[in-house]
Every structure is written in C-alpha cells, then in structure tokens.
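Dear support,

Our group has been running a series of protein-ligand predictions, and this particular one with alpha-D-galactopyranose is the one our PI (initials K.S.) wants archived with full inputs and outputs. We had some confusion internally about which version of the output was final, so please treat the block below as the authoritative record. The input we submitted was:
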Amino acid sequence: MIVPRWIQTRDDAAMVKAATQLFRSHFGEDPEGVWAAPGRVNVIGDHVDYAGGISIPFALKANTAVAIRRSGAPNYRVVSLAPGETEAARVDIPINEVGPGNPNSWAGYVVGAVWAAIEAGVIHCAEGLDMAIVSDVPVGSGLSSSAALECSAALGALELASGRKATDAERSALVDACIRAENEVVGASTGGLDQRASLYGEEGKALVIDFQSGNTELVPFDLSGHGLALLIADTNAPHALNDGQYASRRGVIDEVTAACDANTLREVDNAVARAAAWAKTEGKDVEVTCKRVKHVVEETDRTARAAQALQADDLVLFAKLMRDSHESLRDQYEVVTPELESVFQAVGERGSRMTGGGFGGSVITLVAEEEVEQVAEAITKAAEEKEFPEPTFMVATPGAGARRIA
Ligand code: GLA
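Confirmed final output from the archive:
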C-alpha cells in the first residue's frame, strides 16, 4: 500500500522553543531574541530574475528560526540543526575571516549575510554573535532553504543591533546583502527572487516581482476559494546551485545581454535573433543559445500573463501557463531532471510545474482539495516504479515573511 509522506512544519511557538533549547545546550545561556524567515515556492517565472523578468513566488509556512545573542567575542559561533537531523552542525569563525569565498558551506549563508549587511552599512555591530538555528525548510528542495538562513540571520542581527524593527529601507538593503552573501561568500550566482520572497512575503499573499523596475506587488493568493490546493512534491533528488549547472545557464544570458550592450535581457529587442547572431560570430552553439534566450523571453511574457490571470481569477488559464512554463524549462532551458518530470507526468493535465532552479528539487501542482491525498499517492507510486527516491509532500499556503518571533 502506498502512503505518501508529509513534510512536518512547526508553528512559531514550537520554533522558538526548539531554537532556544538548541541555543541553551550549546552556549549555556538564553538568547536575546529569536527571528524566523520562510522558504518560498515560486508559482511561476523561473530563471528570469537575473534577466530583469517577472516572478510570482510566495513565502511558505515552513521557516528557519535563529536564536541570537551578542557575545562580545571576536568570532561568530553558529550551531544548526537541519530538518530531519538529530545532530547539530557547528561552525566557529573569527569575524575578520568572513568574506568572499569564506566560509563556503551552509554557515556562509548565515555569517555571510551578516558580513554583507555590515559592509553595506545596514547592520552596525562589530562584536561576535552566538546563533542557534533550527529549520523546517527542506534542504536542496528548490524551496530556498538558503534564503531562509540568510534572511533570518541578517534580520536578527540587524534588529538586535538597532534595538528596533527593521524599516522598509533596511529590509530592502538586506535583500541586496543576502544576495551578495550567496553570490560572493558561498559562490552561488543566484538572482534575488528567493531573498525578496523571504523578506517581503505576507500571509495570504503572493508577490508579483518585476526585476526590471524593481517593483514588488502583493496580490491575494487564495486557491481554497476555487476548491484547490497547491501541492508541493519534493522529489528528494537534491540539487545544489553552486555546482556550475545554474551558473552555466545564467552565464549564457549574461553574455548575450552584455553583447547587446544592455543591463538586462528584458531590455533587448529581438533577443533570440540577436543571440543567434552573437552565437554564430563567437563560435558558440547557436541552437542551445537560442533555446536558453527563448525560454527567458517567453517565461517573462508568460508570467506577466499569469499575473493578469490571477487578477482576473482565471485559474484555468493560470494552470495552462504553469504547464507551458514547465515544458519550456524542460525543453528550452533543460533544467528538468527525470525525477521532476516523473511528477509532472504523474499528475495528468493539472496545472503543474517544477519550481525554483531545477536540476532536482520540487514540483508544484494545483489539485482539487479532496484529491490531494490521491494525487500524492500517484506521484509516490510513479517514483517507486522508476526506483527514484521517495517524494515528500506539503500543501502550501502563503505565510508571513521574515520577522522576530521572540
Ligand atoms: C534559484 C535562485 C533564484 C532563481 C531561481 C530560478 O532559486 O536562487 O535566484 O534564479 O533559482 O527562478
């Protein structure tokens, strides 16, 4: 018998308790406060953020929580219990050793974000920090566990140092600092979608982010009015965004953009034709270059139409655009793995797509509320037949962005 496995998430009170306990057991004192930041799901608009495109993510109700205390010491001491782990990992690092390339492990997201925010002049704190982290955001699932780490740590360090809530301007500066940490400290050339979703998310709302204008608009996202749920299937085929695959996709887009003398691909007229001409002159693979550029151009257009469909409450159109998006990520951008495709095929004609960077991770599907269990079973069965890892599931509704929880 097939019984789907569900990802457990805890409420704020349980996260505070777990982070505080971890803090006490490692540092022997109470933290000064606890902050949380969510993972995110991107509903549509993938691999367009670094090209000035449009994305529609929302913040998950799965959070990372960090308990923090200023230590007065010249180092950061960070302990972290990843989801499903029983042993905490710990890193102690002198403040002055944090910077580009160091540490380039999970701890780089944490102390790297604090470092980048100090560098940007948005956090004023020269002393060491003790931090204990617990998380419900699955790692390597395309649900932005890294942004949740960065944003909880950076917001916590900022609000602790200032003694007050972060202003809008400070949140915006933290977005940039967290992106910088990811790019320069950990070496993942990601684009900024995740950090915005984690810092700007709101309960019940999705975000329409236009990376060209910099505008982020909060829009109601309530599927239950349509009797639908958003089912996340984590394939548990882990992905890493600093292993060169992500960078190779982004590299093509950045090169074409630079060759067209533009700041973003979005600004380039006739981008596909110009990419073809460039690839030919440079001796690059013309077909591959055109496919990559075509995805970015079409995905941005598709996401703009998806935003209109949401506004018009047209979920039939929205579902179709999701499927088109998946097919483009599969056929043009080539970031869909067999495990992701297995989920997409198993859900039939429903609105469904891979979410996030791809190369592993999760697929989201619009499912009638009463069919959630049955669809999860079908996805599990398909994975079992192909001898893929067993997927795990979550029904996602939009939750709050990064905030102090104790
Ligand atoms: C990852 C990156 C984001 C974005 C997505 C794809 O999540 O961190 O910046 O590029 O992939 O949309």
